Amino acid sequence: MAADTSSGGGLSQLETHYKTFITEQDFAEIAGAGLNFVRIPLPYWAIEVRTGEPFLPKTAWTYFLKAIQWARKYGLRINLDFHALPGSQNGWNHSGKFGSINVLYGPMGIANAQRSLDYIRIIAEFISQPEYADVVVIFGITNEPQGTPIGQDALSRYYMQAYDYVREASGIGEGNGPFISYHDGFLGLPQWAGFLPNADRTALDYHPYLCFDAQSSAPMSSYAQTPCTTWGGLMNTSMGAFGLTAAGEFSNAVTDCGLYVNGVGLGTRYEGTYSPGTWPVVGNCSTWTDWQNWNSTMISGIQQFALASMDALQNWFFWTWKIGNSSTSGVVEAPQWSYQLGLQNGWMPLDPRVASGTCANQDIWSPPLQAWQTGGAGAGKIAASVTSSYAWPPAQISNAGAVSLLPSYTPTGTVATLPPPTFTYSSKTASAGNGWENPSDTASGMVGIASCSYLNPWIGTAAPPSPLCSSGAAARAVPDSVITPFPRRQS
Questions:
Q1: pLDDT tens, residue by residue, 101-147
Q2: String of b and e for 33-54 (b: at least 16 CB within 10 Å)?
Q3: pLDDT recorded at residue 291
């Protein structure tokens, strides 16, 4: 997009999208649909970009501030999801760039993780301010890291470090900053049972989809109880074994049909055109995308699936509220991914509370959560033996080897402070905060060492620079902190 030099091209197209795609009207409709949360993805370039990085800097933040205002106005709460990290945590297009994994993986894996942790800290400082803490109540610190190639040990250490950064900003206990949400890394909910006992207000994020595995031509009506039998018991078990567990994403899709569902130009498994891999042809996707011609059986089948999903998952976010019209056909071409379209056409419930009991109360979890899991007694008192077992950084990372031999950053830079919104009043004043909740959090930001060499953050598989640094310099995974004061909050 940055290279698009045509009339109306360039990165300005993104701001046009920000201005027009999701507006205050959407927030009003979301509240009117009986929903109480919105999950908002935020990329790292909402904070900054570095030399040569082809993203539109800071603009996303301007519109996120609008989202906070709209959410407050309509009684909604926000799950802020850190969705795109430098280098990419999963190699998928929604991480910023399609290609390879470069966070906690590969030669730039530790450097990109260091940058990402800085951005987590910056976001945490902003949303922990009292002006925002009652609206942005969940912070998903990294969307969909690829846990299998990264490895659970490295991911756990990263999660521990992120926890420390967020709680340094927010403080400990109910009302102090957000719940910290960890994605399961596609390792499965059972793999995180007992993770960080006594951690203050953590949640486990699970993205259950049926549509990306083996494809089937079975009718929609055949999936009526599938969410109940597939996800219900799993979620209930995790609520007891880990604590608060939520489905940060689900959809009504049972096949991968739909325009760009898999990515631009990647085809579909259902029609046997998906790449990579070889997939048998199951059928024609028009059955699943031609929503204007769906009959009552199809519509009721989707609604039943939606209700079963809501009941089985209990704490859930639907992906996504809205799908834009195709520029070719002029209509939505991934209908099972649009909550709004479902409301308008009868396959999403007008009141999601009617989902209760759809799964016939199978494998019900017995509340409540333990006190420390919600910021009460014992919160934040993680045993030293636990924290030491997740010391940062890992000694090695996958596809790269020893961290001591890889490019890393040093904390000698100025840390960005996210700006608050500006208001104009004729006779009244209001505080919007200064962007930084904890004035004692004064560590500097991670930046490159002038005498050391670095690779492109999205380099993929490559050998680390050799020599890593010039004579007399050392790139260290955990450099000593250099203290730079931050602005203090004005009371």
A1: 999 999 999 999 999 999 999 999 999 999 999 999 999 999 999 99
A2: bebebbbbbbbbbbbbbeeebe
A3: 98
Q: 142-153 as b/e, with b when 16 or more CB fall inside 10 Å?
A: bbbbbbebbbbb
Q: Pick the closest to residue 258 from 287, 293, 220, 221 (CA basis).
A: 287
- Please identify which residue in the block is written with the tokens 């020599």: 467
Instruction: Compute the C-alpha angle 404/409/412, nearest 5°.
Output: 130
Query: What sign results for the dihedral spanned by CA atoms 88, 21, 337, 307?
Result: positive
Long-range contacts of 43-47 (CB under 8 A, 24+ apart): 43/83, 43/84, 43/96, 44/82, 44/84, 44/85, 44/86, 44/96, 44/115, 44/116, 44/119, 45/84, 45/96, 47/119, 47/122, 47/123, 47/416, 47/418
Question: What SS3 class is residue 149?
Answer: helix
Per-residue pLDDT, averaged over 225-254, amounts to 97
* Residue with tokens 């955990």, as numbered in its chain: 478
In the chain, count H helices and then E strands: 12, 10
Check if the beta carbon of residue 404 is closer than 8 Å to that of residue 387: no
4 Cβ contact list (under 8 Å, min separation 6):
10, 13
**Which residue type sits at 126?**
F
Q: pTM here?
A: 0.94
- The Cα–Cα gap between 273 and 280 comes to 9
Asked if 267 and 275 count as a contact pair (C-beta separation under 8 A), the reply is yes
Catalytic residues: 144, 249
The arithmetic mean of pLDDT across residues 272-282, rounded, is 94
